[in-house]
Amino acid sequence: MQKIIAKRVSMLELFYDLIFVYAISKITAMIHHPVAGGIPLFNYIEFVFVVIMVMQIWLYQALYINRFGKSRIIDTIGLLISMYAMTYLANNINTEWSVTFGTFNSAVVLIVAGLIWQYLCGSGKQPMRDHDVRAFAVTLILELIAVLSGLLIGYHYGIFLCVLGGLIGFLMPLVVYQQFVPENVNFPHLVERLGLIIIITFGESLVNITRYFKGSIIQPFPALIFVLLVTMFGAYIIQDELLINHHQRSRGFVLMYSHVFMVIALLSMTAGLDYLAESGVSRLNLWLLLSISILGYYICLVANGVYNHRDVKLQLKDYCVMLMIFLIGTGISFYGMQSNFGLVIGFALCGISEFLWLLKISRVRK
User: Fold this and answer.
1) Which tens digit of pLDDT belongs to each residue from 320-338?
2) Whole-angstrom Cα distance, residue 127 to residue 269?
């Protein structure tokens, strides 16, 4: 099989990513303040939906560049339109949807309309004959109709149509999965773009834990939090850089969807680390939030093992060892959860051990 030549990530794409740094910080703020010792279920569902909405917008733009982008005027204008509207969307991310409903969804309409224009006008002379373009365009048109209709109806009933539109954009590609052609995907470019969004998310986590880095430079508690984040990111680097075969033909659906849920898991963990400084938070709820978030992160990470080089495919033994490491680490945290140090030390040991196990697997490659 001919080796795939990686498409270079352009400076404009990196510039486009900057607004998502702000969007992710706004999303994290949605669950930043605990209520009655934890996160209300409805607020968490809102948080998950906004992550899905923002990530699917980012993905549709990234997939257009991945398949058809050639640094033309249409690509540049499309990115700038999306970035302009995304600034308004990010600025209206909160839990008071009745107040920001109009601006938020107007931004969604502009972004989705711009994406449809790019896919139809920037992909070739006969775009609807291309299976990928047809699937993307139909999905985006249905999303546009739903969100625009909801916007016109108004908040009380239109919110349901807007949510439906977001779910169409996120889930419909799974329904028309077979329409997408693996040969159209520049897989190494896709891996790199998704890696950048994870870097942004870890950056948000690092910014939020800086509150604990005060006083003496040698303190065990902030050191443990730092070790936890570093080893989790290190595990991602091993999987993303060393284990995945970047030069393969694949639609990349597992890679894309796993990264959406990885962002949800990381931002949930970030909120949990924030709650360590709050005296009124239930320790059991905090332990559960951090445990489920970290578990979700590693599940998403190992799911990408389907793309690994043949000689480093994850085996049943690897899954069992990684699960055992997680259970032991969370058990230690449960035992010591009444103190911040006791709570974090188990998760830090879990992060170190998971990192070392994946590093051991990567050593198999010559």
Assistant:
1) 999 999 999 999 999 999 9
2) 42
Look at residue 35 in the predicted model and tell me its pLDDT. Answer: 75
Distance CA 321, CA 338 (A): 28
What's the DSSP call for residue 186?
-
* Coil, helix or strand at residue 82: helix
14-37 residue pLDDT tens = 999 999 999 999 998 888 877 776
How buried is 42 (Cβ within 10 angstroms: 0-12 exposed, 13-18 middle, 19+ buried)? exposed
Single-letter amino acid code for the residue at 135: A
Contact indicator for 101, 112 with CB cutoff of 8 Å: no
Separation between Cα atoms, residue 147 and residue 162, nearest integer Å:
4
For residue 308, name the pLDDT band (cuts at 50, 70, 90): very high
Ramachandran category for residue 215: left, alpha or beta (phi over 0 → left; psi -120 to 50 → alpha): left
Q: What is the Cα–Cα distance from 172 to 137, expressed in whole angstroms?
A: 11
User: What distance in Å separates the CA atoms of residue 333 and residue 280, rounded to the nearest whole number?
Assistant: 19
By the 10 Å C-beta count (0-12 exposed, 13-18 middle, 19+ buried), 302 is classed as buried
The token duo for 221 is 């508690």
Please, which residues have CB within 8 angstroms of residue 316's CB and are 6 or more apart in sequence?
A: none
pLDDT digits (tens, 9 = 90+) for 162-173: 999 999 999 999
pLDDT tens digits for range 69-98: 887 888 899 999 999 999 999 999 987 888
**C-alpha dist (Å) from residue 296 to 31, 201, 267, 300, 336:** 17, 15, 11, 6, 22
What is the spatial distance between Cα 142 and Cα 320, in angstroms, rounded to a whole number? 42
Q: List the structure tokens of 82.
A: 């999306």
Q: In whole angstroms, what is the distance from residue 33 CA to residue 219 CA?
A: 26
Assess contact for 349 and 225: CB atoms under 8 A: no
The letter for the amino acid at 212 is Y
Identity of residue 129:
R
Q: Where are the beta strands (DSSP E) in 125-176?
A: none
CB of 52 closer than 8 Å to CB of 32: no
